[in-house]
Amino acid sequence: MTLTVPDLTVLTAADISGVIEADREACVEAVRLSYLWHDEGDSALPHSSFLRFPHRHRDRAIALPGYLGGGADVAGIKWIASFPGNTAQGIPRASAVLVLNDVGTGYPYALLEASVISASRTAASAVLGAEQLIGGRRAPTVAFIGTGLIADHVRRFLRDLKWDVDAYRLYDLDPAAAATFGTALKDDGAEDITVCTDIADAMAADLVVLATVAGEPHLHDPALLAHRPVVLHLSLRDLGPELVLAAQNVTDDIDHAVRERTSLHLTVQQTGNRDFVDGTLADLLTGRLRRDPERAAIFAPFGLGVLDLAVGAWAFEQVVAAGGGRSIPGFFPSSGVTS
Ligand SMILES: NC(=O)c1ccc[n+]([C@@H]2O[C@H](COP(=O)([O-])OP(=O)(O)OC[C@H]3O[C@@H](n4cnc5c(N)ncnc54)[C@H](O)[C@@H]3O)[C@@H](O)[C@H]2O)c1
Questions:
Q1: Nearest-angstrom CA–CA distance, 316 and 89
Q2: Which segments of the protein form a coiled coil according to its record (predicted)?
């Protein structure tokens, strides 16, 4: 059999947004399956590599390489930059590309805009975790603490997956961001929307989405969890160890999540063990772990590169099947003879 060198195909943010907006259930299913395949050991997932800058302390770029088997059989890498100061200048915090590699030849065959993939897989994972912990798609009150781009993607997934929500509470250090988010909820048809000036009022919700850019814990009082909410701790660093220790803790991959000064990492440093981590989303999906109704539950997913690969490969197939994407013939030397 003769191997052929592939063309490289480029997909834009618009290409990818189109397929995700058309079928968020399928996006969640791609995420669900990738958790299960990863859990079965049918993946390779080196630790994410963090590039930090000597003179730009808030900024970073992260490389997430990986391989996902199962029905995906795809390798690749997401390269995502986070510059929190961008938003004040009118452009998003995160920018990213995803490279997909063919597992037969190793060749990269696709280059995808990946900020949309990254935000979508994060939101899909969040709503999947919420559904597992709550036992359905109903939350009387939902709070968004940090109402930026990731929160907005969670809003869209909750809406399109037809979650039953009575009321919303919003809190953001930037009141304008909370107000804009409130308008988007109103456009979705929500009526009961409160912009809170005290973060504790927002925390009083049944389902709390934490999507700030806090670098250090700013929530320390375990009484904030006394009403036993489900907390989706997407920003990973908001909660002090006191809150972590007061809750049932679920993550995506314990080895990955207990790093990089996440709240889970700080709690390990304080306690000297990982015993307070109850399990993973895959444990919930397979029935090995159940929600403890006596405590709050915190789902803090570190964000696994296999999710980007799964959603990216699924989006690639959809776009290319519909005749989309831009192919670049001759991107790679094809003869195998190079000077
Ligand atoms: N776990 C994952 O897999 C994953 C994936 C992607 C992004 N994230 C994280 O999600 C977070 C949000 O990302 P984004 O793209 O929406 O950022 P963004 O800059 O668009 O929005 C962040 C919002 O949080 C607000 N904020 C900052 N500090 C706050 C605080 N202490 N309290 C309340 N509000 C605060 C900001 O004003 C802003 O409106 C980031 O921390 C990012 O690293 C996690």
A1: 31
A2: none
